Amino acid sequence: MTPLRAVKGMNDVLPDEVGRWQRVERAYARSMALHGFREVRTPYVEPTALFVRAIGEVTDIVEKEMYSFDHRGEALTLRPEGTASAARAYIEHAVHGREPVTRWWYTGPMFRAERPQRGRYRQFFQVGAEIFGDEGPGCDAEMIDMLVGFLNELAVPGIEVVVNTLGGPSTREQYRAALVAHLTPKAESLSADSQRRLGTNPLRILDSKSESDKAAVSDAPTLHDFLGAGDREHFERLRAALDALGTPYSVDPRLVRGLDYYTRTLFEIRGAHDKLGAGSTLVGGGRYDGMVAALGGPSVPAIGFAAGLERLLIASDLTEATNTVDALVAPLGAGATTAGLVLARDLRRAGVRCEIDTRGGSLKSQLRRANTLGARIVVILGDSELAENVVQVKDLAAHTQDRVGRDDVVRAVALRLADDTARMVAPAASREPA
Ligand code: HAM
């Protein structure tokens, strides 16, 4: 029988990789807590209408990438992103009535039926955050600066921040008309996708990867030519705040993103080009001051971002020590195995991560097992040790082996491991007595 395989573009994360995932997730949760964000968890399935209304009917996501299905007459969709759900929950629970400013973060799987490739999957994980109730631009700058700090913590090389402003809806309308006027005479040279977008969502043509589209927009007017005074000032203040924070960035007046909800501030962060390819964005975000009202809530400004966890993992130079347990109990013989079970339980009760090799086997094979697990300590328990109520404590890092009385084993192992932790977190000089 042919074995079944996972759905294309949806991946298993095996235990060897989970350590790195957890490290990034922990760093993210810590960074969020430091900045006053609280975690929100929304369903993976939402009414299809939520994404159509929030993201926009004429977007790649809504037009061709959603996993939508009918369930007993209800039109449902596996969430392709987290912002629409966060805004829905914010409105549904009338959070605006309780908090002037709301800072939420989230993580979890998102679903988009895209063509799978490195860094692009059909089920992928995002870490993201949204701020409701602050019209910026201070919080916009704070968010971008926080992300740069987070990416630095993950040791992502070659971080580049690109910012732009889209202005408000009226700017977009005027610009849209100007862009259509510019591109219509060149329509023949546009790609088939862009010819279609000319009538539906012309701003997306600015984002096109096709060479002929790039040529057609190269001398197009930019949206900045149409910005009103308020939008212009908002953007200037964002730039001043980023300068004050010392956050490096560049301005790309042609930056647009694939979701229709953005207003004013828009940003992307790229990095690790050699591993991800130049087009691969790590973080995308921006303001969406009109979404909450458009979804039936009050008029509340908002900004947020999301980063692809898989992309962060590809981009990050961090490695996770493959240390599964701290100690291995190695019984040599049947009698020793039962005594070893008790000893292993005692060690775990003292907080020592511990495995026991109940297959028994030779000392050599058990030491090999300790190596595979990354265990520093091997507690060897043979028949002669059992008779004398002692064990051998082998420290693979310090290259020592000591005979320790059974009652002292837990303390002896814990002390060695504690010493190891101290050495790892404090530089040697700072441990010298003053
Ligand atoms: P987005 O640009 O669609 O924005 O996605 C954000 C990030 O998710 C991307 O930069 C990328 O790292 C990751 N990502 C997107 N699609 C895939 C995929 N198919 N495979 C792997 N990773 C992917 C949003 O989702 C907005 N909700 C961001 C936002 C929040 N804007 C305001 N608030």
Describe this structure in words.
It is a single chain. With 434 residues, the protein is of the alpha+beta class. It folds into two domains: 15-167 and 227-315, Bira Bifunctional Protein, Domain 2 (BirA Bifunctional Protein, domain 2), CATH 3.30.930.10; 327-430, 3-Layer(aba) Sandwich (Rossmann fold). It has helices at 15-34, 48-55, 60-65, 83-92, 138-153, 169-183, 192-200, 211-217, 229-245, 273-276, 291-294, 309-315, 334-349, 363-373, 383-388, 409-425, and strands spanning 38-39, 45-47, 67-71, 74-78, 102-111, 123-132, 160-165, 250-251, 263-270, 281-287, 302-308, 327-331, 354-356, 377-381, 390-395, 400-405. Helix 5 (138-153) packs parallel to helix 9 (229-245). It starts with 14 loop residues before the first helix and ends in a 9-residue tail after the last helix. The model is unreliable at 421-434 (pLDDT under 50). Histidyl-adenosine monophosphate binds next to strand 6, strand 10, strand 11 and helix 12.
